[in-house]
Specification:
1 helix, mainly beta, Lipocalin, twelve-stranded antiparallel barrel, 12 strands, about 10% helix, single chain
């Protein structure tokens, strides 16, 4: 009886083995996972941009812009450096003279949550801004992070100190400088629209905690690759200050077209 049960068990195991082999042959193979995108870690990548314009005749004016944007990715975060120079003049004199630089570091706590710290400086003489220095930090959330789209939200606290070229009426007082603690609210995204076209944008809101005003800035850029190193680009920015001082407009808008060189 025991021999008969043993033979039955061995026969069942052999049949199961043959069935599994047949299923392995007939079943379609599972699709392979896509390879991870190639990313150079701990390596600086730079985008250098240049734009210029000259007009004569009924309107005589000229302008030149230069920007440098660097990014360094690591296993734990991202470090960015940005700089911009703008100069423009017409028959009446200088219409734009702007120097800006900023840096930010993002440190990933989890795949979705990160901490950030940032510093920046801005000089804009036609806007009566001899120097603005900002510093701050906070936390952010990766809402979307795919090879085609990245979208982040951030919030934090910061401090801004303005020094004016000429004394001006700001917040109901004649001032040569002004400092304030601000809330930092922002969002930024980058999009790969096609194999050779990318779009990126960033919005930052900085309301003063004492209610003395609001600063805001929106930046956007569209780039189309001509070669592996050269791109045609269109960049736009809009800067808002609810209380810039007497005789100054609250909003400054800039649109620049030019070429970009990639160094990596």
């Amino acid at each position: 009886m025991l021999k008969l049960q043993g033979a039955m068990i061995l026969g069942a195991l052999a049949l199961a083995s043959h069935v599994a082999q047949a299923q392995a042959v007939l079943a379609p193979a599972a699709p392979a996972a896509p390879p991870p995108p190639t990313v150079k870690l701990d390596h600086w990548r730079w985008e250098l941009g240049l734009g210029a314009s000259v007009s004569s005749g009924n309107t005589e004016s000229s302008s030149a812009t230069f920007n440098a944007d660097g990014a360094r990715l690591s296993a734990h975060g991202k470090w960015t450096l940005n700089g911009r120079l703008l100069y423009a003049k017409d028959v009446n004199g200088t219409t734009a003279e702007q120097v800006a630089a900023d840096s930010r570091y993002d440190h990933n706590l989890t795949p979705l949550i990160f901490l950030f710290g940032q510093v920046g400086g801005l000089r804009d003489r036609p806007a009566n801004l001899d120097l603005r220095v900002t510093a701050g930090g906070g936390a952010g959330y990766h809402v979307i992070e795919t090879p085609e789209t990245i979208f982040d939200l951030t919030a934090g606290l910061g401090y801004a100190q303005d020094r004016y070229t000429q004394p001006t009426l700001v917040n109901d007082e004649i001032r040569t400088s002004m400092g304030r603690v601000e809330m930092l609210l922002g969002e930024n995204s980058s999009h790969r629209l096609t194999d050779n076209t990318t779009f990126k944008q960033q919005l930052s809101l900085s309301p003063a905690l004492d209610g003395s005003g609001l600063r805001a800035e929106w930046k956007a850029g569209l780039a189309v690759a001509m070669t592996a190193k050269l791109k045609l680009s269109v960049n736009a920015s809009m800067r808002y200050n609810s209380d810039p001082g007497t005789g100054l407009k609250k909003t400054d808008t800039l649109v620049v077209t030019g070429v970009q060189l990639t160094l990596d």
